[in-house]
């Protein structure tokens, strides 16, 4: 379920418009990082307790040297560069996935416009094309989204839901025995064949209309293919491992390197002694939160709060495509003279005066001057 919040900040009035979002828990950074923060604090206070109460003076000096060593060399990890580039790549990938989402609205509008006829045969052919488009999209979603696959685990469930007929299921089963490749392209092929049949029967008036419908059907097939490609070809695992190791090793060393040491020893940058590592904690939340963003967006095909709503999208596509593609003559309003009809006629008459032969602005100015005199 996508967390929607931009309507809360539509009007940016006053100071700190984003501050009203900080109290939200669902989909927040707090919900993502609180477990990591808890582990970090437990480890930090464990070493702090050992340093303050469990070690003698000689052992404290050794601990302080180890702490200063970790504080110095942990800065050599290029965490900002590695993590920033990785998150940028993940966000670009996520946006590409969204742009690849198939929307059958345009195909349904073209189908209603170019596939003529109000008889039962014409309606059946239009509805069949719409059903095939939704079937192809649903089969694609089942291959990439575990939540959709749980609802439609097999072809028999497609038949029960009305997306597939028994004869079509037998065709898919027969092809499945011949080839192990996915069959999501078949419904789009069937849809193109129905459009071609409609052209032969005169329900699609010309080749241009047929081409418009076929091109849009193939564009939807291309979108489904892109989604399958995003799901099959991931960011190299080694890159994800490098980023994860870099972030967690950085803060593992910071558990020792960020300890507050005895100010009496006059170590550099250790002038005060505090019990709460405020700035270290903020740094931890920022970097771990950054990593959690990448973890949330790297695969938006699941059922997390930041993932795409495939289940709701299936119902939306089915309802919208049938509403647009098979609305019939009753779905079109009656044309009337609207409120701007007279204003449009007046503007046209005024414009026609300027197009009359012999008309000039100088003559019009002379006529207006004489009328004033």
From TrEMBL:
Transmembrane segments in this chain: where? 37-55, 76-95, 129-148, 237-254, 274-291
GO CC terms: chloride channel complex; plasma membrane
Q: What is this protein called?
A: Bestrophin homolog
Origin superkingdom: Eukaryota
Q: Where located? A: Cell membrane; Membrane
Family stated for the protein in its record: Belongs to the anion channel-forming bestrophin (TC 1.A.46) family. Calcium-sensitive chloride channel subfamily.
Q: Which organism does this record belong to?
A: Petrolisthes cinctipes
Q: Which keywords are on file for this protein? A: Cell membrane, Chloride, Chloride channel, Ion channel, Ion transport, Membrane, Transmembrane, Transmembrane helix, Transport
Q: What does this protein do?
A: Forms chloride channels.
Membrane topology reported for the UniProt record? Multi-pass membrane protein
Give the lineage.
Eukaryota, Metazoa, Ecdysozoa, Arthropoda, Crustacea
Q: Which GO terms describe its molecular function?
A: chloride channel activity
């Amino acid at each position: 379920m996508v967390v929607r919040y931009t309507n809360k900040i539509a009007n940016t009035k006053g100071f700190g418009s984003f501050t009203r979002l900080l109290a939200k828990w669902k989909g927040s950074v707090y919900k993502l990082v609180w477990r990591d923060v808890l582990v970090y604090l437990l480890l930090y206070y464990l070493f702090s307790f050992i340093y303050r109460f469990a070690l003698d003076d000689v052992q404290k000096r050794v601990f302080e040297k180890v702490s200063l060593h970790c504080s110095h060399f942990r800065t050599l990890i290029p965490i900002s560069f590695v993590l920033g580039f990785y998150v940028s790549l993940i966000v670009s990938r996520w946006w590409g996935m969204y742009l690849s989402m198939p929307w059958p609205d345009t195909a349904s509008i073209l189908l209603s416009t170019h596939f003529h006829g109000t008889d039962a045969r014409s309606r059946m052919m239009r509805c069949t094309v719409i059903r095939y488009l939704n079937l192809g999209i649903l089969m694609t979603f089942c291959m990439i989204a575990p939540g959709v696959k749980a609802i439609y685990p097999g072809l028999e469930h497609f038949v029960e839901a009305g997306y597939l007929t028994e004869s079509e299921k037998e065709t898919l089963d027969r092809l499945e025995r011949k080839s192990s490749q996915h069959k999501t392209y078949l419904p789009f092929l069937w849809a193109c064949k129905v459009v071609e049949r409609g052209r032969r029967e005169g329900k699609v008036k010309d080749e241009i209309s047929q081409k418009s419908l076929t091109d849009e059907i193939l564009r939807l097939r291309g979108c489904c293919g892109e989604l399958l490609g995003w799901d099959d070809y991931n960011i190299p695992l080694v890159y994800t491992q490098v980023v994860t190791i870099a972030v967690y090793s950085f803060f593992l060393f910071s558990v020792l390197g960020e300890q507050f040491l005895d100010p009496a020893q006059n170590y550099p940058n250790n002038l005060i002694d505090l019990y709460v590592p405020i700035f270290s904690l903020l740094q931890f939340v920022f970097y771990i939160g950054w990593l959690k963003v990448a973890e949330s967006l790297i695969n938006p095909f699941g059922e997390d709060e930041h993932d795409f709503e495939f289940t709701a999208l299936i119902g939306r596509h089915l309802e919208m495509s049938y509403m647009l593609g098979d609305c019939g003559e009753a779905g079109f309003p009656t044309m009337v003279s609207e409120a701007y009809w007279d204003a449009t006629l007046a503007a046209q008459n005024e414009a026609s005066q300027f197009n009359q032969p012999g008309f000039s602005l100088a003559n019009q100015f002379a006529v207006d001057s004489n009328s004033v005199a």
